[in-house]
Amino acid sequence: MRDTTRTAPPSLDPVALDGLTPGDAYDLEPGADLEGFEILDLRLGVVALEGASVYASRLAGLRADEADLRHATLAEVVLERLDVPVVQGVRGRWRDVELRDARLGSAELYESTWDRVHLVGCKLGFVNLRGAELRDVLFTDCTIDELDLVQAQAARVAFAGTRVRRLDVQASTLADVDLRGAELDEVAGVRSLAGTTVTPDQLARLAPLLADGLGITVGD
Fold first, then answer.
1. SS3 of the chain
2. What is the pLDDT at residue 198?
3. pLDDT of residue 180
């Protein structure tokens, strides 16, 4: 029987990279097959990696107006200091990925699959993970304007020192989702919060929303 008194944490290992080959902007193209590359300090209009496969690589210091990662596969990848206002990453597959110190505006990542993803020190605007599958995901010291998890399936997802101005979990399926390390300003879809863990203070703040969502009238 599952121990309902304990919230299982994300299972993550650091991404270890060595012996990387220097790359440049010409390596970033739709359908690219990159393995063992290190690409540093580029300023581009568009990062076009639609349908690409990126393995055991590091991209750092990348600035672009837009990044196209639709249908891309990232595995054992470290992304550092990315500054991209618009990210298109629909139906991507991310496995063993670290996203560090990134500044992303609107990130369209719906119907993606994330396994063992760690976001650290990121400032994120609107993050659309509708219909996504998330397993073993950790947000550490991040600021997120809006995190859209509508109809998502999430297991072993946690937040540490992270502020989420608006969290939407309508029609989502959650298991071992630990919200205790999140500062939540607004939550939509409180009826779908089954499978989450919150602090007593968070529960007190959520109480009016829970009562409204369940049709409970509170009065003297």
1. CCCCCCCCCCCCCCCCCCCCEECCHHHCCCCCEEECEEEECCEEEEEECCCCEEEEEEEECCEEEEEECCCCEEEEEEEECCEEEEEECCCCEEEEEEEECCEEEEEECCCCEEEEEEEECCEEEEEECCCCEEEEEEEECCEEEEEECCCCEEEEEEEECEEEEEEECCCCEEEEEECCCEEEEEEECHHHCCCEECCHHHHHHHHHHHHHHCCCCCCC
2. 93
3. 96
